Amino acid sequence: MAGAELIGKEEIQEVMEVLETGVLMRYEFHEQRKGIYKVARFEEEMARYMGSRYALGVTSGSAALKVALMALDVGHGDEVLVPAFDFIATYEAVLEAGAIPIMTDIDDTFNMDPKAVEERLSPWTKAVIPVHMCGAAARIEEICDVAGKHNLLVLEDNAQACGGSVGGKKLGTFGDMGILSFDFFKTMTTGEGGMVITNRKDLYDRADWYHDHGHDHNPEVGRALEGRAILGFNYRMNELQGALGLAQLRKLDDLIIAGQRENKAFIKEALAGVPGITFRTLVDPAGDTATFLGFSLPDKERAKTFQKVLKEGGVDTICYGENLWHYAPRWEHLIGRATANSKGYPFTNPLYKGKVDYSVEAVPKAEDLMNRSLFIAIPVKMAPERKDAMAGAIKKAASAI
Ligand SMILES: *Cc1c(COP(=O)(O)O)cnc(C)c1O
User: For ligand 1, is residue 52 a contact (CB within 6 Å)?
Assistant: First the structure.
């Protein structure tokens, strides 16, 4: 729940300022809006926070992926590497752009394995999308090195680790482009919303045009007379989202991430004595957003028993091997190529010459880890009684395996 737990008077204040002007659109209405440009300010403040040159607000994290792929000119005939452990949106965005998602194995970070990237390359590979799952980084520097060696574009999907970093550099700023999501469950929220991050002016311009019907946003002329270089679509963020984003961004480090880190440390300590437990590898523990705690048990049976006894003690865990939305070999509609297009595009596109494999055999490390690992979602707020109850449930579950 993260940022959604902290919605309060700061968010109300920001949203009220917008409602008082009556202008919900991020562009135009310069007189009526009385100097209030919430989306533009949110973009500025996020760019500063990320240490990136540009940030573009859009309607969702999924939209951000699509807009970034269009800016990068990834499309028909191209392959894009995506991790096997991922939220389905990344695969969908690649298909939306007309390209083919290539499932890639993970490593002990539970994120894309840089070595697997090399194994999955084909003459059609155009881009790599490392995803920083469950609050923590992929081996992003190694992945960028491999991509650089093979001339591939890197788009970081940082929907799940907003505020995370490696070596002090923010996740989402390592690749050519990065994206963030602010949906209701993400580290900070605007209800729905997303952002595209980049340091490159050419990519920013294309994203900016594409997300608003091709408008070049020339400040010298009114909206109706603006120039247009490419056809686009509508993925504009609105002022209410911008207002919420400003309030949430101010809470991100000191309240949201700090709160999660404290609670995660407590739970991790309580789990440390569980026989056979190993914790997810963190590339840079100092840059962990602590949204989730991931750990593995020696085998599936013990993981299941542990999960069951924890559940009886009121503690929920997620086994992503069974979860329907986060592990690609379990997606029957992807495996069946059931796109919304009755002709089967983009899989049947004659421009596409490659071959896809979404079988579990293609990702042996993911298949091993997914079935014997559990994740606990870390709350920002945790009452002392809740901590005690959790520690008790963990003790009981530990003695059951
Ligand atoms: C949530 C999520 C998205 C999509 O974000 P929305 O804002 O929900 O559209 C994309 N990628 C990953 C890894 C996500 O977790």
Answer: no
Atom of ligand 1 nearest to the CA of 193: 7
Segment 34-43 mean pLDDT: 98
The pTM (predicted TM-score) of the whole model is: 0.98
Q: Where are the domains of the chain?
A: 2-251
What pLDDT is recorded for position 393?
97
Of 331, 401, 336, the C-alpha closest to 372 is: 401
How far does residue 87's CA lie from ligand 1's centre (Å)? Answer: 7
Q: Which residues contact 243 (CB under 8 A, 6 or more apart)?
A: 11, 14, 15, 17, 18, 38, 42
What is the best residue among 58, 67, 160, 162 to mutate for testing ligand 1's pocket, by most ligand atoms within 8 Å of CB?
160
Q: What is the pLDDT of residues 226-239, one digit of tens each?
A: 999 999 999 999 99
Fill in the DSSP letter of residue 271: H
Rounded to an integer, what distance in angstroms lies between the CA atom of residue 374 and that of residue 34?
A: 50
The predicted-structure confidence for 50-79, as pLDDT tens digits, reads as follows 999 999 999 999 999 999 999 999 999 999
Query: Does 2-251 carry CATH code 3.30.1490.100?
Result: no
Query: Is the pLDDT assigned to residue 1 strictly greater than 80?
Result: no
